[in-house]
Amino acid sequence: MITGQVAKWHRDPVIVQSVRSTAAATVAYIVALRLSPEHLPLTAPLTALLVVQVTLYSTLTTGIRRVNAVVAGVVVAIGFSVLVGLTWWSLALLILAALGVGQLVRVEEFVVEVAISAMLVLGVTQVGSTAWVRVLDTLIGAVVGMATNLLFAPPVWVGTAGESIEELARGMRQLMLRMGEEAAGRTEVERATARLYEARRLDHDIVGVDASLRQAEESLKLNPRVREGLLHRVVLRTGLDTLEICTVVLRVLARSFADLAKARDPGPLFRPGIGVVVEELLSQVADAVVSYAVLVTTHVSSNAESAEERLANELATAAATRDRLARLMLEEVQRDPGQWQLQGAVLTEVNRILDEMDTEHRSRRLLEELDRYTREQRERARWLTRLRDALGTARPARLRERFPLPRRGRNRPAP
User: Where in the numbering of this chain does the Integral membrane bound transporter domain appear (predicted)?
Assistant: First the structure.
């Protein structure tokens, strides 16, 4: 019980950030007391608090921006101290100049820090000594903050992102199951409209999952615990993109059901024979969505192969049910052509979801993303790419081995 609670705390970004920031700030203050001539070098722990982030990549980038901001502010203050003293109008010019310099040096969220450093340095009598003491304290805090994440590598948030993706898939599954149950019987317009609103709310869930995934992507960068960070990033990102497309199609499907309910009120959406098949099809598609999420979040090769095989079987089963539903709908339309556009739209939308989750489509998308990443890397660092090619560590080959293209899709419409 206690072990499980500790493990849960270890996965909580808020708790991890609080503990790491507190430890880094304390160590930075102790080091600054020994190295800095300042009596109370509070700039060092303040910098450590600002520098230490949940991921190693953000810690390094934040530390560089923080030091850059302080140095820029010190330089501006020294320049003003040579030209003018501290008056109300010189303070206004100092702040304006510091904020402008902060934008030029691209310190992002630390633009205000440039002005703060400039004001603190200009407000003392011994500008030179105070300026470099502030730079020293900032460097101490930044170095301690970076060392904290280098020596004690932060956790990889892939698991948290994976849980978010699976939770999104389960939410989609529950919605499709409810829509299927209502399609098998009489559906009131209000209930069909409520399902449409539920489908629209999935967009908010996508935003939360995307934020969790961005944190996971950052935690994979420059992390010594990770060997194939690119592979994890590409798999998770393409998986979320696919689920996002499926949520859009599901929203359109819910709209088609709502329109059918309005057109056929007070009767059922489909005649009894067709409604049962629609329920069966949506249930199978719902299971496939969850299996797709499990496949995306599975990193062990043997488990991934098993998950992919399960997904392929579920897609094949759903495709067979879709073909059976298409034949039944064709017979229904031939007898009664009313609302044939909406019934055809239901088939089209289900087919789009199946096509997005197709294993061949997934493999092709992964390879396209890898090729795009490789091209960008070649343009940014040509010398590093040549070195990697010379050492035989090119990533495309490894990923192509992990995700070979199937010979044909398994959920294509029957001829």
Answer: 28-147
